[in-house]
Specification:
mainly beta, Purple Acid Phosphatase, chain A, domain 2, five-stranded mixed sheet, 10% helix, binds manganese (II) ion
């Protein structure tokens, strides 16, 4: 189980709540940037985080790669790849160059869940400032089931009470 959140914009407690809920269960907890917290905040112990356009601490990494559950996971906020509310820029090219199996990004504060060129692309929405059609503050739980031929992803968007959000529960399958 991989937990992905983003765009908390100074709301520290919500990060703490999610971390407390999943620290023992998850193989990784990801924050895709725009926390507006200092990089040395102790909250980041146990969380993989990157910098967003609203993070002024220069010590944040622009992107991070990690191997988790046999997947090459790439984390970036998205603004540096030209992602905006109007277009994706070169975000998905970047994921392909990095050979990502899973791309986690933020910045647009809207949920995105799709497979592109064999890469699961996830935007967890925002835990603080949702935009667009979905009005709930949310984050994402990814579960991966693999056999020799298929990879199955179970993606559950959750509200801040950790309840699944109706209409945002997805199962995607791809050939390996
Ligand atoms: Mn933001």
């Amino acid at each position: 189980m991989i937990i992905v959140m983003s765009d908390s914009h100074t709301e520290r407690t919500v990060i703490e709540d999610i971390k407390t809920e999943y620290l023992d269960k998850a193989s990784a907890i990801i924050h895709c940037g725009d926390s507006e917290l200092p990089v040395n905040d102790l909250i980041w112990s146990g969380i993989t985080v990157v910098g967003g356009n609203c993070d002024y601490d220069p010590e944040y990494k622009d992107y991070q790669s990690l191997e988790v559950e046999n997947q090459h996971l790439l984390v970036t906020h998205g603004h540096l790849q030209g992602l905006s509310g109007w277009g994706e820029g070169r975000l998905f090219d970047f994921a392909a160059e990095q050979h990502a199996d899973i791309l986690c990004f933020g910045h647009i504060h809207r949920p995105v869940c799709e497979i592109r060129n064999g890469c699961l692309c996830i935007n967890p929405g925002s835990v603080a400032q949702p935009r667009g059609d979905w009005k709930e503050k949310m984050y994402t739980v990814i579960e991966i089931f693999e056999d020799s031929v298929h990879k199955n992803f179970k993606i559950s968007y959750r509200n801040l009470k950790h309840e699944p959000i109706k209409g945002l529960q997805l199962e995607l399958e791809m050939l390996k």
